[in-house]
Amino acid sequence: MKVTRRTFVKGSAAVGGTLVASRFLPSGFQTLLKTEAAPAAAPQEEWVPTTCWIGKQDCGILARRINGRVVKLEGHPGNPLNVGTLCPKGVAQIMAIYDPHRVRTPLIRTNAKGVSGQWRRASWDEALTLVAGKIKEVRAKDPKLLVWQKGRSKGKAFYDEAFVKASGATKLHHGAFCSDAGYRASEYTIGMSGVLHPDFRHVRYLLAWGWNITNAGGNQLCWITWPQQLSAARERGLKVVAIDPRLRGAGPFTDDWIPIRPGTDLAFALALCHRLIAQNTIDREYLRRYTNAPFLVQADGTFLRIDGKEQVWDEQRGVARPYDAVAVRPALEGTFTVSGAPVRPAFQAFKDHVSPYTPEWAAQVCGIPADAITRVARELGEEARIGSTTVIDGVTLPYRPVAIMAYHMAQQELGFQAVRAMLTVMMLLGAVGAVGGQRIDVGGWAIHENFEKLDRIKITDPPYNIYLKDSPYFPINSNNSSLVARVMLNPDKYGVQDRPEMLIVHMANPMVSFASQPDLIESYKKFPFVVVIDPWLSETADFFADVVLPAATIEKYEGPSKASDQYLDGVALRVPPMQPLFQSRGDIDIYLDLCEKAGLLYGRGGYLDHLNAALKLKAPHRLPLDRKPTVREIFDRWAKSEGIAEGVAYFEKHGVKVKGPIPAAKAYGYAADPPFGGVRHRFYGEALLRYQAEMRARGAAEIYWRDYTPFPTWRAPTMTASPAEYDLYLITYKMIEFKQSRSSFIPLLNELAPRQRLDINPRTARERGIADGEEVWVESHHALTGETRKVRVRAHYTQAIRPDTVGLPHHYGLWSHPGAKGQGPTANALLFTGEGYVANTADQSFHVKVRVFKA
Amino acid sequence: MAMRVEPLPYRVGQISTGTLLLIVVLLGVVAQGLYAFSRQLTEGLVVTGMRDIGTMGGPAWGLYIAFDIYFVGVSFAGITTAALVRLLNLHALRAVSRLAEVLTIIALILAAFSVLPDLGQPLRGVVHLLKYARPQSPFFGTFTMVIAGYLFASLVYFFLDGRRDAAICAARAGRLQWFYRLWAAGYRDTPAERERHRRVGFWLSLAILPMLVIAHSTLGFVFGLQVGRPGWFSALQAPAFVIMAGVSGVGLLIIIAAIVRTTLEAQDRLTPEVFRWLANFLMVLTAAYIYFMLVDWLTATYAAPLHESRVTSALLFGPYARIYWPSVAALVAAFYLLLRQFLTGRYSIAVTVLCGALVNVAAVGKRLLIVVPSQTHGAMLPYPSGTYTPTWVEYSIIGGLIALGTLLYIVFTKVFPVIELPEARQEMGHR
Amino acid sequence: MARYAMVIDLDRCTGCRACMEACKVENNTPRANFWMYVFRFEEGEYPNTRVWFMPRPCMHCDNAPCVKVCPVGARYKRPDGLVATDFDRCIGCRYCEVACPYGVNYFNWKRPERNQYLDWTDAEAAAVLAPYTNGAVPPYKNPDLERAYGPERRRIAGGGHLKGVIEKCTFCVHRVERGLQPACVANCPLFALHFGDLDDPHSQVSQLLRRRSHFRLLEEASTEPRVYYLGGKPPGSDTRQIETIRARA
């Protein structure tokens, strides 16, 4: 551009005038001036690929960076998980990065524990030296006395595996609050690690069973991926039945709402089984070939074994033969006599077992019309198209376009057996692993080690560890931190001897986010030394930490994380879009230094050695065991070891490596070689009966062993024994606005939902004289001990909830962040843990009977 | 100078201790208003009770706009009365005509001022409203027609009407002699001059009356043309605004006349006859307004669309009922009292003043109810209904404006005869 | 000249409000100003309850009441259909706001530095972050918002959310002029929002409107909105808002 003298003078006069004016005029006058000034230099704009940090599935992100400052996080279009989009939390976490209330330096406690903390700022060297010294001291006594607790793990190889193994720590995690009852049920029954989700590309009839479509995740993945697939499926004609006491979570994505009474899912599933058998919509072929349904069961409930081999009744020959005998035609029904003793196929036993579970019976239990159950069973039977096939990837596969999506509903007292019953429904229909049918693990068909492990649990003699592993109380054990709290408060009762000496809490906030808050608060006082690794001063840190180590949020290398939506496979890496703010550091950096100082880093059995294994690094990319690498170098070696020649630079440039479509052979159990990984699905849970016998033999009370039954068996949940005045069921749920209890202080998010609220049907509320928005007390009752707990909260009218049920979201109840004060209580303050409120797998129940009255 | 200083009529130039005290109090109230305005300038309109329509539920317009239309409404009385006096040759009312003109001018000044605190950028308001004026906006009418045209015409009329008295006052020595001379501008009250004045005054009155209807209608259009605000969109808005303006203006004029009558001892001029005229005038206007109200009611309750009926029910039974019903009651009571006077022929100044006060209370209430409920309860999408509670800032600024108006009025009465000087005095002045 | 429009598929919306957040971060809107708002609705009584969601951007009406009433021409209709607000000219009278039947206008009631979620006049917060943000308020301040757009070269992208001026959804004019989708559209996790040129018969919006039945909000007000809804129906007398955001400036 040619600049004439005249335009130059004009331009400088304008700029000068503006400058002078803005200097001397009061601010009001400034607004009269147009102040568009071309920036001195065009800002440097960059897009840095990374991954989301706030949620569970680490969606792909492109961070927009202007002159080194991140101004926006957008979805990464190439990541199969989120395809260029982000949930509200993902977008708003930018405010979390810049939160001035993050922990800015390592902190060392200066006051007594159990009350709000006072701190002095420390250098990293001082803090790490202190922590490492303590680790050494504790490990010298017994490494198991070091307890490592995680909430959300973003780099499993680095923390859960390498650190835990290198240090020998006892590991606690969040699973028992998430959906681990469902994981255990699926691992034990089908051999797949996960809960339940459909083959969305082909499913036509879906039971959204407690699936909070519009607000929460779903099986294994976060919220974005599943609703995207659901919406696409609906546009192809998918029918959705929502089985949920609260419709709100299913939103408009439901054709049929069955408002089931909380905690009665097992009864509903059993009645469906009853109807499916009565309708004769059963995939007998599948049951015969791929399950233990034809195995002959003896009167004592064990399988008939000859030479150690389970037997079936050959219909053609009329004799019992080994299940894998050539050309055997196993009977599913009938009662037979082998060696003078009566036997019947497991399927027949099941048929007998479910005969009392009629729709009319279940209607009473579940608080819904019997018609609804009959209707769903009929539609399931019709839509399953038993016997039909379709061609995928050139392979002809059974086509059963019916499935269940269930995840967090697994967390109820009968959760393990309820999920087993739901799997049984799908097994009867032959939908497991079929096209359009039931899936469990988004990763594809791979048999989890727990399929065998859970079948062969050796219940041992005391002492037990703090989460009662291999005890006669919870042989199948999901490691429940709330239960740990009960154990810590009364170790002798459970045969526990070792008292932990040190606790490292990594990205968890058990004080608020785990059920039964009073128990947790009491028990954490028992940990002599507590270290918290967290970007924020969590409530756990506030009350109990001796040392707080500030972790970075998104601004660090971390991963690798799976980027598969069950159809496309990929892997992603978190790349720092800017330097860690304040003195915070990436978590992996913290562990590297901590291990070095604690003498755990180098050599065989050290952190680096375990890291080589955990990251599956292949030579020549394995980490040398005598030198501390940078985090970037570790990922560089990992990427190269994975066959990505550019190393970590590939991820710094692209963020995600899409490996390509998941082949049918991996996605469908039927297409796997051998089908279903060569296992027989456990229609009949013989081992469960075995555990029951051993638990009884060891004198465990009925409350522990009563749900160890080979078939899911209904009983009324413990909470129903609360007195009649506790006339409402409390359910808890997630909101799309928040992630766990670690986001309600983000102002962009809490603006959307600033306060805790109790969902209540207007009819119920009016009966109690409660107006919309009015403050109420919610008082929970422990049916066994009579203990009551209460919180004060505002009522929120909704016609989308059962009148006998009230709902509280999680996410609230924080007190240490100024942005989260006064938001109201956590639902966890009302819930109980321990016997009666955990499943037989030690999983936490999120149900309790309450009464609600005007405050 | 040996000239004897003769006191001016109607206590012009005399300031008693009581007046002084009142002036000090009023100045205090004005100062408080200015302080409130400065808070608003620094922090923004967040210090008011107004908020956004929709998600915030609040009214975007509140007390400032309500009083803006109240002030404009009050201005009605003055110029109408003066013009009617002139056009219909109502000698009985000559004595209140200047009282009324001053009221008009001060009310219009207050109206102009009360827009300023409502603007987010008052400075820009002053500049941009001129610089970028858009005649298509009903606001343009408010500013040009009402504030500029109407005020200008009133000032001209006021100036001409006062020239004779100015000339009389200018004949006397005093500190304000220059001011009277300036106003008189060479007027010497010759018959030719008188005739010329009479003619100009007549035509000006004739011109002002339609202007006045247009001006008050324009203000009605600010609301009545808004299809997006249930409760506003109505052809009735414009005429109702004209009538309500008359009700409040005449009502206030009655009050002022009564005060002047007592404080300035003008019983000889502001006779019961004057009040009788004003009372009857007010009665007719009140009747007309009540008629409009009834028509409005019927329309809004008989077969109103959903959103209209929501606003109506908020008015009649909802949070605004406690303003609505007292306002209606005040109007009806005033009408009843006025009608009784008319029918019995027994007029009382006290009762008439009471009626003036009642209709003004009702006028303020009704203004607020025109402005606010359609915003807080008139959302056409399912937003939650809102609330409006004015803050101390708004009360202070409105209080400051009223105090300013009162102050200006008092100051005027101290510098100029607020009642047209009688013929007799006029002769004296010529000697 | 393009003729821009937004098409919102109600059959896809999960009411997650991610569009609201994307808008907020992109446009740096102050607390309680929702250029994009998502209604969550409930209809009927238990157990015949219906739950649905409705995003509400500015409708960018062809016959925009706000444009008509603006006394200074700060609110104007661009040839491409965008209804723009010139924040250099606005006097803050809020007439556009009272004229709008959709409630999409937001006024800057507060000083921006006190209204960006935290009080950035708080010396400590500012000092703590200064090394990383260079004093930007909010820390994620988008430099594009201050510039002039369109052939008319007017500043209509929101800018610094100047105290005392009105603002509303701009259809992300600063993105659209660079060929990008508005932030809400680009981010919608369910792909429920579409944006494009009605004059282009091959654009996604044109195709969707040809293929599927649609409605616009408050057609009876003859505002001729440029935002079309697919699926569902407009909110009626039985429609109740739930989980209402009651944020106030």
Fold and architecture overview:
The complex is a heterotrimer of chains A (855), B (431) and C (249). Chain A is of the alpha/beta class. Chain A is 30% helix and 19% strand. A 7-stranded mixed beta sheet of chain A has the order 5-4-24-23-22-6-7. In chain A, a hairpin with a 4-residue loop joins strand 14 and strand 15 (319-322). Chain A is globular, with a radius of gyration of 29 Å. Residues 1-25 of chain A have low confidence and may be disordered. With 431 residues, chain B is an all-alpha fold. Chain B contains 15 helices and no strands. In chain B, helix 2 (63-88) runs antiparallel to helix 7 (191-224), helix 3 (94-115) packs across helix 8 and helix 5 (138-170) runs antiparallel to helix 7 (191-224). The longest helix of chain B is centred in the middle third of the chain and has 34 residues, at 191-224. The two termini of chain B are 18 Å apart. In chain B, 52% of the residues are buried. Chain C is an alpha+beta fold and 249 residues long. Chain C has a 4-stranded mixed beta sheet with strand order 8-1-10-9. In chain C, strands 3-2-11 form a 3-stranded antiparallel beta sheet, with no helix packed on it. The longest helix of chain C has 11 residues, at 123-133. Classes of the chains: A alpha/beta (855), B mainly alpha (431), C alpha+beta (249). Chains in contact: A-B, A-C, B-C. At the A-C interface, strand 3, helix 3, helix 8 and helix 27 of A face helix 1, strand 3 and helix 5 of C.
- Topology, number of strands of chain A: 33
Please state roughly what percent of the residues of chain A sit in beta strands, choosing from under 5%, 5-15%, 15-25%, 25-35%, 35-45% or over 45%: 15-25%
Which percent bin holds the helix content of chain A? Answer: 25-40%
Cα-atom radius of gyration of chain A: 29 Å
Give the overall average pLDDT of chain C: 95
- The main sheet of chain A orders its strands as 5-4-24-23-22-6-7
Strand order of the largest sheet of chain C: 8-1-10-9
Q: Mean pLDDT across all residues of chain A, rounded?
A: 94
Radius of gyration of chain C: 18 Å
- The count of helical stretches of chain A stands at 28
